[in-house]
Every structure is written in C-alpha cells, then in structure tokens.
Amino acid sequence: MARSSTDVSVAVIGGGVVGVAIAHALAGRGVRALVLEAEHELARGASGTNSGILHTGFDSVPGALETGLILRSAQLRDAFLEAAGVPILRCGATLAPRSAEEARTVAAVAAAARENGVEVRLREDGALDVPGEAVTDPVAYTRALARAAVAGGGEIRTGARVAAIRRSGKGLTLGLAGGNSVTCRVAVNCAGLHADAIARLAGDESFAIFPRKGEFLLFDPPRGSSLERILLPVPTKRTKGVLVFPTIDGKVVAGPTAHDQADKSDWSVRGEARAEILPHAVAMLPALEGAEPVASWAGLRPAGRGANYVIGASAACPRLINVAAIRSTGLSASLGIAEHVAALVGRAGIAVGAEQRLRPAPAPVADERWWERAAERGRAAA
Question: Which of 14, 48, 58, 290 sits at 20 to 30 Å (Cα–Cα) from 144?
Fold first, then answer.
C-alpha cells in the first residue's frame, strides 16, 4: 500500500468527547482540524463507558480550572444540545446525608455550589437538591460533536494511531501506524489513557496517566417503577462514590467503583464490583434489594498521578498542546475545555476567528443503545 501524507493546520490526537469537542470549536472559528482516532470508531474509551451524567459543577472546587470549564460548558451546552438533537433527561439530583457528619459535608457542598453560582436547594432534612443535573447518551453526544465539526470543514479519521512525533520546519510531523503521516502546525493531545505516551513521543515526560476503573451495574426499573432523579452519595476526598441514576431509555444504573490499576487495556468488570456497588445502591434506593443486574460495564478514567486537568502547551514541545488527566468530568466539561483550547491554538499562531454556530447533520438511527456497546466491550474483555 502506498504511503500518504496529509498537511493540516491542527491535528487533534484522540476521538473521545474532548477531542471532537475541540475539533468542533475550531471548525466554528474557521480552523479545519483533523481528528486522529486510534480505534475503529469514536468514543471507544472513557467517553463511551461513563455515566452519561452532565454535571453542573455544583460540587467542584471553587476557583479550580476544572470547575471553571465545567461551569462554562454548562452555559454553552443547551444551545448545542438543541441544535444537534442530542437526547437529554433533565431529572435533577438529590444528595441525602445519613449522619450528622455527612450533613456537615452536604452543607459545605451547598456553600461551594453557591460560590460556583450553581442553583441548589438545601432542605430542612439536610438533603441537597440540584435541579440542573441531567443525563444524556454520551456516545450520541460525542458523535454529534463530530458531525458538527465535519459540517464546519473538519475531518475525522479513525484507525489512525499516532506512533511517532517529530519536529519539521515550523510544525510537527505525526507518523501513523502503517506508515502514513500528518504534518501540522499544532497538534492537540487528547489521547485519554494514552496521553502520557503521546507526550513522550514529543519528549515530554511531565505527567503520567493511570487507569481508574469505574464499574457500573444496570437494572430494569425495580418493581416496575421509574427512577425520577439522580441519587448522589456524600463524597469523600478520594471519590464521589456510588450513585444511582436513570438512563434516557428508562433503565437504572448503580456505580461507579473506583479501582486503581496499571493495565490500560483491562476493561473487564471485576468479580468484586457487585459487592462494592450494591450495598451503597440499596441504601439510596431500597427497591434495588434483591434485584439482578441485566448488564454491567467498566470505564477506565484517565487519572493523572498528582495532576488534574493538564491543559497547555508542552514545555518540551511548544507545538504540542496537552489536554490530559481529564478524569471523570470530561463529558460535562467538554465544551468549556474546547473553547479554552481554541484560544490556546490561537496563541500558538493559528488564525482563530470569531465563533459561528455549526449545525450537525441529523443523527443516524442508532443500532444499539450506548450502554449495550459499553457492556459488550466489558464482556469481550472478560
């Protein structure tokens, strides 16, 4: 097969929700980016195996970069969802304490939410209602962003794994597995679990990514009743804990776990997951007592070692912009991250124009529900 080379202004490495959101933001500003996704389709990693919850940022640390990008994304989201026809369940969430200590934590969360400008209601019983929390189909969301990027002149290329990065003139040449190459003025590293490996190809060893496994159990609505709200646990310093939430197609999900591992290719659901999830889920939704899950899956969150939301030009290779260690909030923050990165691309010398709203092509009829695809990946990994 003959080798080929492509010349673009911006190459985005990684076709998860953050990568395609960046391509969408750039296309809307007159920059035609090329997305290079190693897998055979988009959203095969953390983007397609998460909860699908769109967070408001109510419980995020005030003043943190992550918080600012979640809050900005929430401002941008409704217009995109409406234009793209992405399904959304605007159900709200409730955080209910079960002890005096948890009640103090919930009160502190309420105070932080108000500082973040997020609407919450602290009830007399100590429970916190967050009306803006919602649920979507994360794969449909990712695909809609990709269609909008293409509508604006961007390109999506799957089965395109970046295997080498070298400096060439005023830009970079990305060598692809199989021998083809892409020359670009700026590359944006959104490779998720493998963002550290991509950075190292450019001589950047400033951060490391490890997989934090989050496992989920899916149930039919217990006793024939639907779940009306997201039920949130009181968070700890390490994790937000196990939650119970509805899907847009009426199922009930409990999870995730938070299991740190070394293997970035192990998407299996551990035997211990059920015991780690169910007691917490039943405490929040007693109707799940004795219920049998009809599906399960695991997502691998790209957690940074001592780092979170590593976003900026690489000190080792300034033409490479890292967007790494985005953890579990990437879906919620994706539009804010994309706007932020578009500004960074402009500072790198690319002509970035004023924003124009892009209208994606209509969504094709899905042949499976997103959680079925996630569950199939888990079964294949077992």
Answer: 58
